Amino acid sequence: MTKPSPSTLTRREREIMDILYRRERATAAEVLEEMADPPSYSAVRALLRILEDEGHIKHVQDGPRYVYLPAVARNDARKSALSHVVTTFFEGSVEQAVATLVERSKLSKDELDRLAQLIEKAKKEGR
Amino acid sequence: MTLTLIALAAVRAAVLLALVLTALRFMGRFSAATRRSLLVGAFTIVLVLPIASAVLPALHLRGADTQVDPTPSVAKTAPDPIDEAVPMVDVPSVDARAEQTPHAAVARETATSWSPLSIALGVWALGAVIVLARLGIGLARARRLVTSARFVETLDIGGRPVQVRVSSTIETPAVTGLLVPVVLLPEEAATWSAERRRLVLAHELAHVTSRDCLANVIAQLAVAVHWFDPLVWIAARRLRIERELAADDRVLDDGVLPSSYAEHLLALATNHGRSMPQGALAMAEPAEVSLRVRALLAPHTRTPLGRNRFALAGAGLALAAVVACATPEREAAPAPTANEPAATAKPTTPVATASTTI
């Protein structure tokens, strides 16, 4: 994946990226807290999804919450291996107590097309 | 030797899980609900087996001749084979008469610290504690999610109150709560169509009806006890998939078209059809939503809701439990300890310590 160019981001998107680089990981709610003159909550989530689709950030699931992190960390060395293990451990904990509807996944265009085709075919057959 | 008995108990669990996982490969035509029931039953047995074994010696010590258990083989073993209270000991399967003296010697020897047995037990306890801690933390965090969510309404589902709440910190709907089930919806739910809201609720309520949160706790307890066995993790992951498929099936039973439900699921999972950037690597394994959409749209046999699946799962489980608990006879002299009727008569009874001569 080519490294995303920061110059194509809007002001708001750059602000979100700065927050994520500073905090290293944050939920949408936490990003909102740190924004100056924040937009609505759903607007922040929409922006986060756009940033993710464009490859600037990624998310990990914390049960029904999504924790966003920069796709390319500025200081990879800072997080120790142990810290990473502990964080992953905590993020996996909620999943044990909660049943989420569906995991938000990134599907390839091919797979997305295939599934869309399957759905269309079923619709035509009245299923 | 005590270590052998612990290993035996662990092997039994592993065998049972291996049998169940293998059986699942051939159960593609059965409903997800049936496969799910089989897994939950297996986890229950795997969890209770060691505990039952720990309880039995205590009963046994009170009187070797007293039949406190329908399993006659229990009375056959000598009164005092094991000195320490070891959780995974399975007493009745050993002909202790021949081993009584060596056992006493071993018991004295293992009383000193840092024996291999102590180390192994220590490592096991550490692993179990870590898994249990994760479960405990998860339950606590789920509780916080609920209390911080905005209450909407209480539904009456088959006599049970189920709360619906909206949480501003979640991005996908979820259900939680062992005693009082709570359906958590994200803020976006307010923008959904009535149909989508209905489908999402139907899916989450299916989890409530099937008591999937409880089933997951049972599975996690089993993982805590048998964490060293990779099969228990594989089975736990499989249970997660099957419970989602089963809940999807329940949504369809309400009368919605599979294609409509699949469309909504796909939209919710992929943020309305956005695909990965070009050139990105394909996922290593199929995404869960992909599996579920295909399952919804593929014509397959679904056994109707009802007792069928329990009977089927129960019978299969009983068979697997008997096979798993079979113990090679140590002595040349045959000991008539065959005891299948007790095990097969009660498929859900965890005391499947039947010994069969091989």
Strand content of chain A: 5-15%
Question: Overall pLDDT of chain A, averaged?
Answer: 83
Binned strand content of chain B: 5-15%
SS field, number of helical segments of chain A:
5
Q: Any chance you could write out the topology, listing elements then pairs?
A:
The complex is a heterodimer of chains A (127) and B (358).
Chain A lengths: L10 H13 L2 E2 H7 L6 H13 L3 E6 L2 E6 L10 H17 E3 L8 H16 L3
Antiparallel strand pairs in A: 1-3, 2-3
Helix pairs in contact in A: 2-3
Chain B lengths: L1 H24 L6 H31 L10 H4 L23 H10 L6 H32 L2 E8 L2 E8 L6 E3 L5 E5 L7 H16 L2 H14 L4 H24 L4 H13 L17 H10 L9 H19 L14 H6 L13
Parallel strand pairs in B: 2-4
Antiparallel strand pairs in B: 1-2, 3-4
Helix pairs in contact in B: 1-2, 1-11, 2-7, 2-8, 2-11, 5-7, 6-8, 7-8, 8-10, 9-10
Any descriptors?
heterodimer, A: 127 residues, alpha+beta, 5 helices, 4 strands, globular, B: 358 residues, four-stranded mixed beta sheet, disordered C terminus
Give a written overview of the molecule.
The complex is a heterodimer of chains A (127) and B (358). Chain A is of the alpha+beta class. Helices cover 52% and strands 13% of the residues of chain A. Chain A has a three-stranded antiparallel β-sheet with strand order 1-3-2. In chain A, strand 2 and strand 3 form a beta hairpin. In chain A, helix 2 crosses helix 3. Chain A starts with 10 loop residues before the first helix and ends with a helix. Chain B has 358 residues and is of the alpha+beta class. Chain B has a four-stranded mixed β-sheet, sandwiched between helices. In chain B, strand 3 and strand 4 form a beta hairpin. Chain B is globular and about 65 Å long. The C terminus of chain B is likely disordered. Strand 4 of chain A pairs antiparallel with strand 3 of chain B, so a sheet runs across the interface.
